[in-house]
Queue: 4 jobs
Job 1
Amino acid sequence: MSTVIGNQIFGKPDSVLEESLNQRLKRQDVNVANITNSLTPGYRSLGFDFEKQLQAAIGSDKDLIMKVSNPKHIKAPGMGADGVLKPDLYVKPTESIGNDGNTVDVDQEMTEMAGNQVIYRATIETLNRKLGMLRYAINGGR
């Protein structure tokens, strides 16, 4: 009798999609905070990047998984020893600073939010299609 292990149904690609959704939600929060503070004197616009860290964490199936003996050890590029993705939250470099010292470009923030939303929705659709295929298989093709 064979047993289906959860990792065989939901594997590494699904974990990557899930982490991508989590990080896109955090990016959305950063963009919203920037727009909210667009009239705050001295506010510096923040950026949030996670794609490079996620790509490094994915690696390939041939990559060796490094074992760590201390949580301060680095497990993989872009990740901590606890296996949690470590995205970059930084002050965006800018050439235009308002008279009040604010660096938020609302048009740029809205553009970033729109692009982030498109990719978020596409990722949700990908996961929904996989669940639909599983539902179809469970119901015996009906």
Job 2
Amino acid sequence: MFSKACEYGIKASTYIALQSLEMNRVSLKEIASEINSPIAFTAKILHKLAKNDILESVKGPYGGFQIKKERIDSIKLAHIVAAIDGDDIYNGCALGLDECNALQPCPLHEKFVGIRSDLKKMLENTSLYEVATGLEVGLTFLKR
């Protein structure tokens, strides 16, 4: 459902949030290792997230990535998805067809309308704090 970049963005944001709750700043290499993502690809994703004010990038020998502790609960999964994938998840055809719309629907169009609506509500109502604090200790879920 999400692009690979978006999946990594959610995982990276979750990891950064967990570390930020402990007042830790994390490096690109550490994040890439924890989410099992190539470093260059992770860097592009983190750049998009920083550009969209989801996380902060701090330069220098003690630099890295962080999210202000007081902001973690206000960041919704919808913000992360929008920063990386835009709104395609809410508008694209379920079958990937170019000409699918209400006037020329694909066979799944009407069935997919409700799914999209539910997904949008879930993403808009789920905070990064909920995801981060709802996970078990160990973070093994991040690696795939």
Job 3
Amino acid sequence: MPKDTITPADEQKIVAAIKDAEMQTSGEIRVHIESNCEIDVLDRATEVFAELHMHQTEQRNGVLFYIAIEDHQFAVIGDAGINASVPDHFWEDITEEVIKHFKQKKYAEGLARGIRMAGEQLQAHFPYNRQSDINELSDDISFGD
């Protein structure tokens, strides 16, 4: 079902935003979309974070954008390295921006904007180094049921 909501063009827009953001930071960004979230959204996002092995980045600087489309649930979470570095309002600002677009059913635009915001913010704490940076996690969107 999530594949019906996110068109191939939407997917391209989201993946392009991930690639753009990751050119500014060594942080690793993933997007996971599924239909429903049966438990607390932050708990489910944490499960998906582990399932995608996002905690295995060298600097512990993975960020997950999690969406349960039909349940209208959204969470953005980061690994320990990020949480130790970013200001308290970091996640709230991104969440507010993404949800503003989601309310207008502009899912791809909301995700792309939030992803780029994350990249801009993470640049200060995890700068991109062209010589040493490797893409540790896939930029592709992962889909659940």
Job 4
Amino acid sequence: MSDTVDRVVVFMDYQNVHGWARRQFLPFGADPSEGHVFPLKIGELLAGRRRRESELMEVRVYRGRPNPERQPGAAAANDRQTAMWERSDQVTVIRRNLQYPSDYPASRASEKGIDVAIAVDMIRLGMSGYMDTAILFSSDNDLMPAVEVLWTMPQCHVEVASWSGAHRVRFPGTQQPWCHHLNESDFQAVRDTYDYSIHE
């Protein structure tokens, strides 16, 4: 770890972040398009609140992408949102195609491979020397193995983030690793309310 400024990378499990924001801060039945956040604002908020001086290297966002043939409107909105976020060279969006069940649309499409992609990248970048600190923003315990690996790396520190009141990733029976709890005021400060269904 650097003796001067920590190089920070934020890893966002986006569907998880979006879903918990809706559950914690929006009324029941709110439109599915609500509850989005700007990844760069999240990254800047998290890096700015650390006790050590920190430089935000990158926010890596992991999410599914609808099939344009099955969900043309949703796919176009997803593409426009991705393009908006990636106007900053500090934001990288990693998308994997949604998987559609045979009885779609009676059953919903689902994300596949997102957890694996996050875990692989956390470990890969932790070993590479690219970052001093990884912050995982997710409430999904399935990502704990990646946190455990980084926890043992002397060259890379690991922290987590969650919305206030949401489940947080931690080692059983402890408050480790350090968790950044973001409240409703934080959510409002980073909220993405742009309507991506509108063509520019």
